[in-house]
């Protein structure tokens, strides 16, 4: 096997950050679109925890966490500007708060039934005050978490902020968090994101993104 193989799911924010990192690095990879309801036995044999993304490397080793895949893709000389700023204490804290506190509130806001949640609006408010407003203040200082240029932390947070904004887009648009809204709009319209969201045929392995895309 020459190329890495990514088990992915198009709408999963963790898989999105992994795909974007691989695209930024210009690393050719095969992709297998997983059905979360009917996971491939081959993937489960390689990674029994059963979440995506999972990446099988050419040397046979397996990466089971999206951040590890991003590290593998970006922690190289050619993409130093994407990886190094993401190692600052401040940016590692943004990552931890995104994957912890923000994800907690996002899930309960987006899927209240799944979590038997009765205080959906409370979670929306907590996500806003504890994470999105501080992130907006941070982005008022510079356009990206990487400074004037984006870094891995921008890639890692964007798919989750996207999910939050998409729950009630009209409400989100009226919020006074312009720096964050601009940051989000720029990522949504970026060629990188468009490529990362290319639709794959289910349950087969194909080169990603397909040639010419
Ligand atoms: N910590 C993991 C989280 C991955 C994760 O939770 N992925 C979700 C999809 S967004 C998943 O596969 N969940 C298992 C399922 O739904 O069966 C990572 O960073 O890769």
Q: Could you characterize what this model shows?
A:
The chain has 213 residues and is an alpha+beta fold. The chain folds into 2 domains: 5-80 and 193-208, Glutaredoxin (3-Layer(aba) Sandwich), CATH 3.40.30; 81-190, Glutathione S-transferase Yfyf (Class Pi), Chain A, domain 2 (Up-down Bundle). Helices cover 53% and strands 8% of the residues. It is built from 10 helices and 5 strands, in the order βαβαββααααααααβ. Strand 1 (5-8), helix 1 (13-24) and strand 2 (29-33) form a beta-alpha-beta unit. The longest helix is centred in the middle third of the chain and has 22 residues, at 89-110. The model has no long low-confidence stretch (mean pLDDT 95). Glutathione (GSH) is lined by residues 9, 12-14, 36, 50-53, 65-67.
The total domain count is 2
Q: Give the N-to-C terminal Cα separation.
A: 23 Å
- Radius of gyration in whole Å, from Cα? 17 Å
State the helicity in percent bands.
40-55%
The CATH class of the largest domain turns out to be Mainly Alpha
Bound molecules: glutathione
Strand order of the largest sheet: 4-3-1-2-5
Structural class, from helix and strand content?
Answer: alpha+beta
How large is the count of helical segments?
10
State the major sheet. Answer: 5 strands, mixed
Beta-strand segment tally: 5
CATH architecture of the largest domain: Up-down Bundle
